[in-house]
Amino acid sequence: MKQRKTIATNIIIAICFGVWVFIQLFPSDSTITNAILIGAFYKPFVLAGEFWRLLTAGFVHVHLWHLAMNMMALLSLGKIFEPLLGMKRYLMILIPSIVVGSLFVLTSPENSFVVGLSGGIYGLLAAYVTLILRTGGWKMPPVRAALINMLFINLLLNFLPNISVHAHLGGFVTGLMMYGIITTDKAEVHKRVNYGVALVGLIGVLCFISWQNRTIPTRSRYLGTDLNVLQILNDGPLHKYSYFLAERLDVVYGLDDGFVRVLGKE
């Protein structure tokens, strides 16, 4: 029997676990600070130019239960889709779903701290639902039962504390579009183009709304957290970068060289 390879899935699980260990063990004031240091989605830092956080947030988990639930969901869906689609097309669903899920969060006018692979998982879930409907698998009781259980568990996650429904929605919509792009027959080029245009249009709208909501309200500013991260960067090999980031954060918050002055006094 041919082995069903899940190389990308296994690597992602290993990365997520390694990041979680770092967050638990790195000596700082809190795990939140550690999560931001290693790539969590934190709106002020994204607005300051660290756009890579839209992706890296997917590999960051603070709590063990969150990590365990997401990894079990990823493993279940990865066993289906990575062998079926191949590593490249599998990641073409997972990665954009993480990024666009984060963009959905960025549109919020409030400050946001978000971690977890849920956006990517919801993208794979959308692809799974589409596959079942296309192939008529929903007519088979075992497949239908498995689908219902998977949907129930993932919907239940939305009601847990500190879970971003926005990221789930963004990931699900992106998964639908990306699955359409990569599985549509080559002869039906117009369908692929339609999916691609729809996704690009969605991203454009999200970027516009995010720009409109780029101001961080005073009530949701956590300047102490920002300063902790900057101080750790300043004390390490990223000393110069800490000043660059401090300058960008001063612009984001509309401060008069506030963070820059504090770092300069150290």
From TrEMBL:
Tell me the domain of life. Answer: Bacteria
Q: What is its EC number?
A: 3.4.21.-
Peptidase S54 rhomboid domain boundaries: 49-180
Any one Gene Ontology MF annotation carried by this entry is: serine-type endopeptidase activity
Identify one Gene Ontology CC term for this UniProt entry: membrane
Extract the InterPro entries matched here. Peptidase_S54_rhomboid_dom (IPR022764), Rhomboid-like_sf (IPR035952), Rhomboid_protease_S54 (IPR050925)
* Main location as per UniProt: membrane
Specify the protein's topology with respect to the membrane.
Answer: Multi-pass membrane protein
Q: What class of enzyme is it?
A: hydrolase
Its subcellular locations are: Membrane
| Keyword entries, A-Z | Hydrolase, Membrane, Transmembrane, Transmembrane helix
Q: Which family does it belong to?
A: Belongs to the peptidase S54 family.
UniProt protein name: Peptidase, S54 family
Organism lineage reads as: Bacteria, Bacillati, Bacillota, Erysipelotrichia, Erysipelotrichales
